[in-house]
Write a structure and sequence with these properties.
The protein has about 230 residues and is an alpha/beta fold. It is built from eight helices and nine strands. It starts with 5 loop residues before the first helix and ends in a 7-residue tail after the last strand.
């Protein structure tokens, strides 16, 4: 077993794995225990008391974080020629239709979000097998199939996140970067958690939020005291 460096020992001593912390405490701690040389993402892992295999217990939605994610999302807009200028003016990274559909069929998926319009969903639908597994398929529920292309692009650029519970009942999402102030990390995390609480399915029985952990890339998880989410 590799010997721990002095830095790693210091870090391990800061978080008590048996304790539960408030969001404010955890947001400060995650900054202190992250030793990566790059600006790591700060992530939330929320275990829910739902059975995602049942349609009436599926938890999915969108949230706009007050301080953004700290990550510049690459946006592709698939639209008709009359919407190209609107998409480019709103800050889309790539705009087009048939040329990009062919590019994606050839294996190109170097993007974070695809926004499109109802009239071209027939063409976009043919990409389901490629886009579906990567979470890139546009969806009216998440606001990525719309006639208001400009607003959709701006929302994504400002930090709007599309999320859904996985097959294990866990919602995982980035809520910022380690370089953020602890207060901003806490506010982003709180906004995300409040959104999850509002989406509680009526069919879910027992404890809805079972556990919440805050961590950064490569750091240990810090358990949040669920009772303090409203703090």
């Amino acid at each position: 077993m590799a010997k721990l460096t002095k830095n790693q020992k210091n870090v391990l001593g800061k978080v008590d794995s048996a304790s539960r912390y408030t969001l404010s405490q955890a947001s400060q701690l995650v900054k202190e225990i992250t030793t990566t040389k790059f600006d790591a993402s700060v992530d939330l892992d929320i275990r829910l008391g739902v059975d995602p295999r049942k349609a009436n217990q599926m938890v999915r939605g969108v949230v706009t974080l007050p301080h953004g994610t700290g990550k510049d999302k690459r946006v592709l807009v698939l639209c008709t020629p009359d919407k190209v200028e609107e998409a480019q003016g709103a800050g889309a990274d790539y705009v087009g239709l048939d040329d990009y559909i062919e590019k994606i069929k050839g294996g190109w998926t170097d993007i974070d979000v695809i926004i499109t319009m109802p009239s071209v969903m027939g063409k976009v639908g043919t990409l389901g097998r490629i886009l579906g597994p990567r979470g890139l398929m546009p969806n009216p529920k998440s606001g990525t199939v719309t006639m208001d292309i400009a607003n959709a692009v701006k929302e994504v650029k400002q930090g709007k996140i599309d999320f859904k519970v996985d097959k294990y009942g866990i919602v995982h999402s980035s809520v910022g970067k380690v370089s953020f102030d602890a207060e901003k990390i806490a506010e982003n995390a709180r906004e995300f958690l409040h959104t999850i609480v509002k989406l509680k399915p009526s069919a879910a029985k027992g404890a809805y939020i079972k556990s919440v952990y805050l961590s950064s890339t490569m750091s240990q998880g810090i358990q949040i005291d669920v009772k303090t989410i409203e703090e």
